[in-house]
Amino acid sequence: xxxxxxxxxxxxxxxxxxxxxxxxxxxxxxxxxxxxxxxxxxxxxxxxxxxxxxxxxxxxxxxxxxxxxxxxxxxxxxxxxxxxxxxxxxxxxxxxxxxxxxxxxxxxxxxxxxxxxxxxxxxxxxxxxxxxxxxxxxxxxxxxxxxxxxxxxxxxxxxxxxxxxxxxxxxxxxxxxxxxxxxxxxxxxxxxxxxxxxxxxx
Length: 202
Known about the structure:
- Helices cover 24% and strands 36% of the residues.
- By secondary structure, the protein is an alpha+beta fold.
- Mean pLDDT is 86; it is low at 193-202.
């Protein structure tokens, strides 16, 4: 990303975040990359051109969908946006790919703001992703149908299952995950969806 585009990004993000306080602020390590991740509970969608990925916490009758990969358990699933997709289209596609579940009742919780704390992993001209800042939109959703028995082999999830809250809160959750999990559960408690009217999910 050129200097002028980076300056434009910094101005636009600063304007959007003005007056907002993150509920979680943490250091994230992705391989050799060090990033700062700040989590915001803001219902408004940030500038879409900086939203590179989408995640959702899926809940059903007091249980949360847990996705396990080779490294750890996660309480959300999702993935990277394609240029032609809306955020919701990305979410539906990636949820199906990574968990095998179709979802509905999608509600935006907020977003995470990631900021690289070091140089890009490749030469700026060769690095295909936004730098130094990018955003991840966070949603909550409800399951509607198990379309695939197992997640896509190319998805990031190795196994998925619904776990009761008593187990979910014993997982090694990041501050950001805990922040959004609490928000998702509070939302479902105050604005319950008609999940109980559905047939028992298999």
